[in-house]
């Protein structure tokens, strides 16, 4: 029997539970939760495990790969899973890997890590700088993979004590490619009961987490439009139909969608970040292309915003005697749903993180207009996404994600490993306890 002492906890709790209506994490006492959480944190902090996790993270960092190109990263993951004796399926959504630890039977809880890097040049001068020009792990996905592998190693050591199955979801193409959506389409996650995901954060101190229930990140989409007019010499504009003027009016009108058509309490964003047209100072071009993003915190608002973007672009173009077409290209850039944290999983997270780190180390996560394709998972089944603090003022400034100067504080890695393992383990145990209690109540009534 492992340190979790399942049999004793199971029998004692089943004898004393009175109803099946308690929320998740009502089943384990504070002392039992603390034992599980603290034991996992101690295991995660073992020097040999910490050094191994760091080596994994640095190897991935040196060899960044873009979305759906993570072949070497995937190979590294599979090699490590093979060494641990963990069964997995590959390929899933081109480069993805899904590992399995436990009984192979329900319940099924998933832990997710994204694998892809960004198309940018690293400017951090250190020993393990990216070896691939123009590519960099500038959002911490190398750390995410390393932490999930660390959790896998601990969970595999405790596999005989698991009361179900943990799925290790190594996901490709989070950065705009919709890798989570493609993993769902593979049907390999059809039986998942819940999923947890994390992201390292440069906004919170090391040893803290940021989390909340409900919507935490916006739904988002991209649009591109081509405005066609009639080109000609800039000195005789009366003989042209100016698409640059039309595009300029369109951009101004798009801003009115939020400032004049949206409830101020319903956060939305429309941003035009691309404008291409013309190649000379004295020539009005035949056409102009613009592109941008739109974001909202509800399906209704998102759908309305999408419809109005099309109407504004096409009708404003017509006012200027131009024609316009709008393309959302969802095959290449799928719409991301709103990321919504499950209420019951939030209670479990607060209990687990509170016992591991201290309740004062849990920071309220403020909703952000940023997006995360974990939202596809959380839309398909109960999900929970949180931020892992890694700021240490003695280590200097930590730049935000997508910066060429982005750094990861590797001292934060054991916390992510332990939270992964603790959340999966306690979820499986409490799921079984709830099921047993429910069956016992039905038996008593009969």
UniProtKB/TrEMBL annotation:
Manganese as a keyword of this entry, yes or no, is yes
InterPro entries, A to Z:
Amidohydrolase, Bact_exopeptidase_dim_dom, ILR1-like_Hyd, Peptidase_M20, Peptidase_M20_dimer
A single GO CC term, please?
A: endoplasmic reticulum
Q: Which GO MF terms does the UniProt record name?
A: IAA-Ala conjugate hydrolase activity; metal ion binding
Positions that bind Mn(2+): 139, 141, 175, 199, 402
* Protein family according to the UniProt entry: Belongs to the peptidase M20 family.
**Protein name, per record:** Peptidase M20 dimerisation domain-containing protein
- Originating species: Solanum bulbocastanum (Wild potato)
